[in-house]
Design goal:
The protein has 520 residues and is an alpha+beta fold. It has 2 domains: 42-259 and 497-519, Periplasmic binding protein-like II (D-Maltodextrin-Binding Protein, domain 2, 3-Layer(aba) Sandwich), CATH 3.40.190; 286-491, Dipeptide-binding Protein, Domain 3 (Dipeptide-binding Protein, domain 3, Roll), CATH 3.10.105.10. Helix content is 24%, strand content 22%. The protein has 14 helices and 22 strands. Helix 7 packs antiparallel against helix 9, helix 8 (313-321) packs antiparallel against helix 10 and helix 13 (451-462) runs antiparallel to helix 14. The longest helix has 17 residues, at 466-482. The chain is globular and about 75 Å long.
Length: 520
C-alpha cells in the first residue's frame, strides 16, 4: 500500500477502509459454542493473549504465566488495583526497609500450601528468592532481584532480605511481580528442583484445577484460603492471540473481560455490546525509531537530528493507532518516576527545521533502510516515516522481517534505521537497563554509548530518593534524544471491555489482577 502525503498530512482513507473485522478463519479455543452463558453463574471468563504452561515462577514467560501465578501463589506484597502504582500486603503481615540494604518481613500465620506441604515459613521465602540467583538454577528473571545477596531467616515466619547494594526497583518489580512469588521449598525439592506444568503446591485464593493446553486454564476457589474470600467460584482463562477474535467472542457472550484492539476503541466509545463497559488505560510499552550510530551512513549527528524532526508522530498515531494512543515523551511512561512532561523534539514534524539540519549536515542523496517486524501496525508506521522523510529528500527502503530475523537485529552490523517496541515494568530502571554501553549490539541496537547515561542508570537504581531518581531518569532520556539516535513515538494504550456483572481489578497499565476481580 502506498502512502500519499498531502498538504494536510497522510491520506488515511486506505488505512481506515482497510481496518476490517477478522474473518471466519480466525481461530478460537475449541470450547467456544457461540452462545451466551448464563449471566448469573459463578464463572468468570477472561481472555489472555497466550497460554500459561509454566507453573514455576522462576521460569515464567511473562504476563501470561504471571496472570495465573499471581492468583495461585502468594507474594510478600502484591500490586494494588487502581490508576496509580502502589502495593499492598499479601503474605506479609509486616514488611519494612530498615536501611538501604535490609528489608525485614513477618509472614501471616494463616497461609498454607496444598497437597500436605504445610504452612508457609520464612524458609520458603528464603528458598524462593535465593533460587532466582542460583547459577545452577539459571532463572531467566534473575535480573529482577538485582543485587540480592540472601535472605536471613530470623524466626519461623520472620526474616530479612539482604542486598549487596541499594536497589529501589525491589519494591516496584521484584517483590510485587513474578520474582516475588513464594513457592514451597519442600514441594519443589520433592519435584526434583523445578516445577513443571503441574503447580505441585499452591497457596493463593485460587487453585489451578485444570489445564487444557492452548484451550483453557481453569482456576477454582481454594477451600483452605483464610484471607478475604474471592468473588468468583471459578475463573476460566481462554488463550486468544488475536484481539479481533476476542472481540467477537465477547460480543457473542463468551467472555466477561478482554483487551481490545486500538482500532475498535472508537466503536466501543459509542457503546459496548451486552451492556458492557469500555475502560482505557495507558500502556508501559514504548515504540520508537532507532538509528545505528555505528553505521557509516548515520555518523552525522545533524543528519540524525533532521530525521528526528521530519517524523510526524500525530499522523502515525492517527493512522496506525486510530487516534487511541498518545505521543511518547521518552521511554518511561506517564505515571512512573522519570516520565518527562515533554520531549526535546516536539511530536509534530517540523519540515523547515529538518531541511535546515539536513543542509547543515552536508549530506546529499541520502538513502537508508528501515527494518521492521512484519506486522500491519509497524508497516503503517514505516510507510508514514518513508513518506515524511521523502519531504526533505531522504529515501527510505523498508525491510519487512519475520520474527526470528528481526529479533536477531542486535547482531546485524548493517542495521541502519529500526522501528522497535519493548515491554516495560513499573520501574524506570527496567527501561534504561537495555541502553547502557554493555548492551550495545545486544539489546541496544542503536549502539548508543554514553558514560553519563551509564552512571545515571546505576545511581538511580540505588537511590531511595524519588525526586532524585526522577531527575536522573529524565536526564538519561535527554541524553538519548540529544544523540539523535532516537525518535520516541508512543506507549500505545490498553483498552479493555467487560460485562456489567464484573468489577475488574486492574493494574495502572490495564493488566488484570484476577485474584481481586469482583462482582458488580
Amino acid at each position: 500500500m502506498k502512502i500519499e502525503w498531502t498538504k494536510t498530512g497522510i491520506n488515511r482513507r486506505k488505512f481506515l477502509k482497510g481496518a476490517t473485522a477478522l474473518g471466519t478463519a480466525a481461530a478460537m479455543p475449541m470450547g467456544f459454542a457461540g452462545s451466551a452463558f448464563a449471566a448469573e453463574d459463578g464463572v468468570l471468563r477472561v481472555r489472555a493473549y497466550g497460554d500459561s504452561d509454566v507453573m514455576d515462577p522462576a521460569f515464567g514467560k511473562g504476563v501470561t504465566d504471571e496472570t495465573v501465578h499471581a492468583a495461585i501463589y502468594n507474594k510478600l506484597i502484591q500490586y494494588k488495583p487502581g490508576r496509580e502504582w502502589d502495593w499492598q500486603l499479601d503474605a506479609a503481615a509486616m514488611i519494612e526497609q530498615v536501611d538501604a540494604t535490609h528489608i525485614k518481613f513477618a509472614l501471616r500465620d494463616t497461609i498454607g500450601f496444598t497437597n500436605g506441604f504445610g504452612a508457609m515459613t520464612a524458609e520458603d521465602v528464603k528458598f524462593s528468592f535465593e533460587r532466582l540467583i542460583d547459577e545452577e538454577v539459571a532463572s531467566p528473571i534473575k535480573g529482577d532481584v538485582g543485587p540480592l545477596s540472601h535472605v536471613e531467616v530470623t524466626g519461623e515466619r520472620e526474616g530479612t532480605i539482604v542486598l549487596n547494594e541499594p536497589f529501589a526497583p525491589l519494591w516496584n518489580i521484584a517483590l510485587p511481580y513474578a520474582a516475588g512469588n513464594i513457592v514451597s521449598k519442600a514441594a519443589v525439592e520433592a519435584a526434583g528442583g523445578r516445577i513443571g506444568t503441574d503447580p505441585v503446591a499452591e497457596s493463593g485464593p485460587y487453585l489451578r484445577s485444570s489445564w487444557d493446553p492452548k484451550n483453557k486454564t481453569t482456576l477454582t476457589r481454594n477451600p483452605d484460603w483464610k484471607g478475604d474470600a474471592p468473588a468468583w467460584d471459578t475463573i476460566e482463562i481462554l488463550p486468544i492471540d488475536d484481539e479481533n477474535t476476542a472481540e467477537i467472542a465477547f460480543e457473542a457472550g463468551e467472555l466477561d473481560f478482554t483487551r481490545v484492539s486500538l482500532g475498535s476503541v472508537g466503536r466501543y466509545r459509542g457503546g459496548v455490546p451486552n451492556g458492557g463497559q469500555l475502560q482505557e488505560y495507558p500502556s508501559l510499552y514504548y515504540v520508537w525509531l532507532g538509528m545505528n550510530l555505528d553505521h557509516p551512513k548515520l555518523q552525522n549527528q545533524k543528519l540524525r537530528q533532521a530525521i528526528q524532526h521530519a517524523i510526524d508522530v500525530p499522523t502515525i498515531l492517527e493512522a496506525a493507532y486510530f487516534g487511541a494512543a498518545d505521543p511518547a515523551n521518552g521511554m518511561i511512561a506517564p505515571g512512573l518516576v522519570g516520565s518527562r512532561p515533554e520531549a526535546l523534539v516536539p511530536a509534530a514534524a517540523n519540515f523547515e527545521k529538518a531541511a535546515a539540519l539536513l543542509a547543515e549536515s552536508g549530506e546529499t542523496n541520502v538513502t537508508l533502510t528501515l527494518d521492521i517486524l512484519n506486522k500491519t501496525t509497524y508497516s503503517t508506521i514505516a510507510q508514514i516515516i518513508q513518506a515524511t522523510l521523502a519531504q526533505i529528500g531522504i529515501t527510505v527502503e523498508i525491510n519487512l522481517l519475520e520474527s526470528g530475523a528481526f529479533w536477531a537485529s542486535g547482531d546485524n552490523e548493517n542495521l541502519q534505521l529500526v522501528l522497535n517496541r519493548f515491554s516495560m515494568a513499573p520501574d524506570p530502571s527496567y527501561a534504561t537497563s537495555w541502553f547502557v554501553t554493555e548492551q550495545a549490539g545486544i539489546w541496544n541496537w542503536e549502539r548508543f554509548r554514553n558514560e553519563e547515561f551509564d552512571q545515571l542508570h546505576t545511581a538511580a537504581a540505588q537511590s531511595t530518593d524519588a525526586a532524585a531518581r526522577d531527575e536522573m531518569y529524565r536526564r538519561a532520556q535527554d541524553l538519548m534524544e540529544q544523540s539523535g539516535a532516537y525518535r520516541f513515538i508512543t506507549h500505545e494504550a490498553t483498552p479493555i471491555i467487560h460485562t456489567p456483572r464484573v468489577s475488574p481489578a486492574l493494574r495502572p497499565d490495564g493488566l488484570p489482577l484476577l485474584r481481586y476481580f469482583g462482582k458488580s
